[in-house]
Amino acid sequence: MKFIPFLPTLLLAGTIATVAPAKTYTCEITPAGSGAWIPEVVVVNHDESTGKVVVLDPIIKFYKDAPIEGRVGTDNARRTTFNWVLEDITVVAGAQRVFVNGFSFSLTVRKASHRASMSSTPLGYANRDRGDGRCTVE
User: Fold this and answer.
1) Residue 64: CB partners within 8 Å, gap ≥ 6?
2) Following CA atoms 48, 114, 85, 74 in sequence, which dihedral angle do they give, to the nearest 10 degrees?
3) Which residue in 5, 31, 38, 55 has its CB near the most CB atoms, within 10 A?
4) Domain made up of 20-137: CATH architecture
């Protein structure tokens, strides 16, 4: 059998050419009010070819120590909205530890300006934290 040294490179190049690169959104958010559950930085990786969304921020890092999966809630000509849920966490409130079912997060990025708005809501409650900012998209 004859070895063709450039064959692996050609095969790899063919694979790369058919795969769309993922977009990484790095967003700096300014929480409104107390905004305790709005992170100042959030990174979202969105693979448009598969629809896979992965999210990491300081809150996720603290409670889960690794990125978590999210989903695309809306994607149109004006904006993309990403949603994710941080589930089953224990929150320290004063001297008490309180189990919380989770928090639902939403991040909307406007395509033209990359302006962002974010919200978080504890599951089972009506109160909501909000924040606004800007994202870089790579």
Assistant:
1) 86
2) -60
3) 38
4) Beta Barrel (2.40)
